[in-house]
Design the sequence.
């Protein structure tokens, strides 16, 4: 009779690759300097959201700017029932003055959808001209590139009106910038010459004008003070996709 098969207790179990990231959090990756999520840290009054507290532990969260108050919804269908902060085309949040990073390498991430089909800003900062701008009418994603100015590329729809995961990774070197929407590379090879953030950073608007503010919803927004590796970009993208509870597309890079 053949003896029973013996498997040493130290032999690792074979599990699907997705299970390896069970319990993953953006905090698991080093360099997180801002993490806003609509299911935590929201303070609101009858007029709207007054504080969106930073979950990174750095106290770099957002506060309402003047009388322009984003709203809060406890459940958004495009995010699979997760909550969202709502920017209605005339709302903005100032990020903490302590949010400053001048090392050059940065990674931004967001879970968003857009209602308005015109030019609108998700994020902007007065120093370094880091600008995330979406012009859905012409299917163009534009970002600021320091002295290079803005650069646009035709990205197609990419689900921007029904919910999308955006990760913007940049290095302060020639050709060091890439933008991923849903895991698809929609912009690459950008050169950034001045990639600093300072206390003038804002969500949902442009720091130099009150026009072209975001009209849409934001479930998460965050910044790392480094350019994440491909592996880490995928870990983050998979997490953000799963967070929506309707698994927004993340094809992997």
Sequence:
């Amino acid at each position: 009779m053949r003896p029973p098969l013996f498997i040493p207790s130290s032999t690792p179990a074979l599990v699907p690759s997705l299970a390896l990231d069970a319990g993953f959090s953006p905090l698991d990756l080093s360099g997180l300097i801002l993490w806003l999520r609509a299911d935590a840290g929201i303070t609101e009054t009858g007029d709207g959201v007054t504080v969106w507290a930073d979950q990174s532990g750095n106290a770099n969260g957002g506060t309402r700017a003047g009388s322009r108050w984003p709203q809060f919804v406890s459940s958004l269908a495009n995010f699979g029932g997760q909550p969202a902060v709502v920017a209605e085309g005339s709302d903005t949040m100032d990020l903490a003055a302590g949010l400053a990073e001048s090392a050059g390498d940065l990674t931004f991430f967001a879970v968003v959808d857009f209602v308005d089909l015109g030019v609108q800003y998700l994020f902007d900062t007065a120093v370094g001209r880091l600008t995330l701008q979406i012009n859905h009418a012409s299917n163009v994603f534009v970002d600021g590139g320091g002295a290079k100015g803005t650069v646009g590329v035709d990205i197609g729809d990419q689900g921007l009106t029904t919910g999308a995961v955006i990760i913007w990774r940049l290095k302060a070197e020639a050709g060091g910038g890439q933008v991923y929407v849903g895991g698809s590379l929609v912009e690459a090879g950008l050169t950034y010459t001045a990639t600093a953030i300072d206390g003038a950073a804002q969500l949902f608007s442009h720091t130099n004008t009150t026009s072209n503010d975001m009209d849409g919803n934001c479930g998460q927004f965050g910044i790392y003070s480094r350019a994440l590796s491909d592996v880490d970009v995928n870990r983050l993208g998979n997490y953000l996709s799963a967070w929506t509870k309707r698994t927004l597309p993340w094809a992997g890079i």
The first strand starts at residue 32 and ends at 37. The chain has one domain: 29-243. The domain at 29-243 is CATH 2.60.120.200 (Jelly Rolls).
